[in-house]
Amino acid sequence: MDDRVQALAERFTRDAVVELVRDGLDLARASVGAGGQVPDVDALVHDVLNASSAWRTWPTPVINATGVVLHTNLGRAPLSDDAIASARAVAGSYTDLEYDLGVGRRGSRQAAIAGLVCQVTGAEAALVVNNNASAMLLGLMEFATGKQVIVSRGEAVEIGGGFRIPDVLRHSGAELVEVGTTNRTYVRDFEEAIADRTGAILAVHASNFRTVGFTHAPSIPELVELGRRRGVPVLHDLGSGCLLDTTEYGLAHEPMPQESLAAGVDLAFFSGDKLLGGPQSGIIAGTTEAVGRLARHPVARAVRTDKMSLAALASTLLHYLRGEATEKIPVWAMIAASREGIAERARAWCKEIGAGSDVIETRSTIGGGSLPGETLPSFALAIDPGQIAASALVGRLRSVATPVIARIENERVLLDPRTVPPTQDAALLAGLASAMRSD
User: Fold this and answer.
1) pLDDT tens track for 190-234
2) What is the pLDDT of residue 203?
3) How far, in Å, CA of 9 to CA of 189, rounded?
4) DSSP string, 158-183
5) Residue 249 DSSP symbol
6) Distance CA 250, CA 79 (A)
7) H-helix or E-strand containing 80?
8) I need a surface site. Which of 37, 217, 295, 394 has the fewest CB within 10 A?
9) Which of 416, 422, 319 lies closest to 68 in space, CA to CA?
10) Are the C-beta atoms of 261 and 267 separated by less than 8 Å?
11) 244: left (phi over 0), alpha (psi -120 to 50) or beta
12) How far apart are CA 343 and CA 377, in angstroms?
């Protein structure tokens, strides 16, 4: 056996390696049968080793130097140290996930996390599921299967990844009733559409685009007043789960769960892994009666979340209760970072890199389907790639020990410190040095 294949067999099971070799031989035979050349041993071994590259732990940690705070392709929100520690602690231990320590018998996996959600948002009751899409799907299945759901035509949107509101309604068993126009919808449009088969009024925050100009949309309090007067539940999909006032950080206002719940919506749906800054999860908050109905729905078990996500979410919510979100939650620390601090780090990077680099003013974006068109003033290290193309340098950066993800502007490679935790500075600079000296 070739030494390289033997080394592979010492790391993995012999059966797995043999299967990989057989697959390689089958491909080689098929190629020869189609008129290709007979490969030598080195080529065969190379193919086997290349195929084995998939046998690695995954996902791979990377350094996000793009300046996009919630980068969907890079896993959105990094967790706080406390959230990581909480997830690690429960991952390696038995827990009281569904056990009541006080009475010594089976308990609820929702009780503790629901209490935290209620304390942070002011909701009467709450339920946590695996993501916001399933949160809304569960709500629609309970309130509107076989019924009609009234949605503003301007809010029958595609949120991302092919997640379209009309499709979700169809798969939930509900019938979409669009009202108003793309740019202007009024409360009277909703009221005129209410009929015997109306199951709910659904408001959807168009989180990944913005319509400007000649526009109008009814407020959540207006929809709630209509819903109460006509006996129709009002559901609100807020998307990002923003618990802090974004206007305090120079950004446009992002709808907050607290506002919708204070206005009296029956159910509010929002993500735990976007602007909330926690793990992937969907949070349902609302009235005791409405949330109770969802908790009893058969699909609730199918979309429930795991102990590690619940532990991380609990720690994240505690940051808000302690008033330390902008210090402890990475996405909020990034949003709140001062221009002066970012500029200082960019200059320090520039000093390390030397010739061919300088510091420029730029803009960071929020990303993750949040605050479309909104940016924050920032600074970036700008590198002239020299004799190679900018695309080649960013490719090299993706191949270093800890991959660095950068962006290209005007044929220069830009790295924005806003989205790089200071603890990653050394790894980023080492990766840059390696990429820039590659042949």
Assistant:
1) 999 999 999 999 999 876 566 777 788 899 999 999 999 999 999
2) 95
3) 68
4) EEETTEEHHHHHHHHT-EEEEES-SS
5) G
6) 23
7) none
8) 37
9) 416
10) no
11) beta
12) 10
- What is the b/e burial string over 315-353, where b = at least 16 CB atoms within 10 angstroms of the residue's CB? bbbbbbeeeebbebbbbbbbbebeeeebbebbeebbebb
Spatial contact of 268 and 291, defined as CB atoms under 8 Å apart: no
Contact 434, 352 (CB under 8 A): no
Angle, helix 425-436 to helix 390-397, in steps of 10 degrees:
130
**Separation CA 438–CA 393 (nearest Å):** 9
For residues 84 and 328, the answer to whether their CB atoms sit within 8 Å is no
Radius of gyration (Cα) for the chain, nearest Å?
Answer: 26
Contact call for residues 285 and 116 (beta carbons, < 8 A): no
Residues constituting the chain: 439
Structure tokens at 392: 């080649």
Partnered with residue 179 across adjacent β-strands are 152
Spans in the chain with pLDDT lower than 70: 159-163, 207-210, 438-439
Measured CA distances, 121 to 115, 172, 244, 252, 261 (Å): 10, 27, 11, 20, 7
How many other CB atoms sit within 10 Å of the CB of residue 64?
A: 26
- Written as six digits, the tokens of 289 are 């009666």
Distance from C-alpha of 277 to C-alpha of 77, rounded to nearest angstrom? 5
For residues 299 and 5, give the distance between their C-alpha atoms in angstroms, rounded to a whole number. Answer: 47
Query: Coil, strand, or helix at residue 413?
Result: strand
Residue-range domains of the chain with CATH: 3-52 (no CATH), 63-73+331-436 (3.90.1150.110), 79-328 (3.40.640.10)
